[in-house]
Amino acid sequence: MARALEPLIVGRVIGEVLDSFNPSVKMVVTYNFNKLVCNGHEFYPSAVTSKPRVEVQGDDMRSFFTLVMTDPDVPGPSDPYLREHLHWIVSDIPGTTDASFGREVVSYESPRPSIGIHRFVFVLFKQKRRQVVTPPASRDNFSTRRFAEENDLGLPVAAVYFNAQRETAARRR
Question: For residues 161 and 29, what is the distance between their CA atoms, to the nearest angstrom?
Fold first, then answer.
């Protein structure tokens, strides 16, 4: 499973967004039923406007998970002073199901990068029990680490990210 961390380290997700962790649960993220999210792959913003299907292949239905989606490159990767921008939080996702079975704490906001290539990071935490997670006051200046600490979530159990950049008007037609 250590190999699963390599793209997260190269992509600076580990370090800038997350501390190093041991991936122990399989998470599969797909947009529009067939576009699989793989570390570092690029998506057009027009392809990720609706929320993805996030499957959690946890150990059993009695374990629960929290999903966080953030953009650590806001407003632009060269000066991300609003790091991180929160796009989505879902809690109480039963193991062996998908995010639609969880409780949406912060509604999905589709990626709209304006400057440069942005990383959009999905992070999965295993909850110690079914719990109420506290939503942040703002989507900007969010910290995945701080959120995990404040909600007693510990280190992640899975993470994956994709890249996106602003589309030209010609591409959107």
Answer: 10
